[in-house]
Amino acid sequence: MVPPALVGIAAPFVTYFLLGKEAVGGLLLGVTVTGTLLGLYMANAGGAWDNAKKLIERSLGGKGSLEHQASVVGDTVGDPLKDTAGPSLNILIKLISVVSLSFLPLFMK
Question: In the chain, what are the domain boundaries?
Fold first, then answer.
């Protein structure tokens, strides 16, 4: 988890030193918009895959069928999407925003 956190911390600095203070504003806007949309997508897609497995277990094929085996593969992807990857994007958005705002006096010089 250290390398992803370092990317989140270093992104505002790299953007500032390579492109300038206006680009840091663009970075914040881009991270907020894309992170929010991607987080919503991940939460909804993961929930859909999880619910598809439950539906197949309940009515369409039952446990042990080929449909159920395929849905288990989908649920293996869906659970991390809805439980970890989607919500972690919220933390990334906050991390980049807090780092950028904390070093705002440096960026304004």
Answer: 2-108
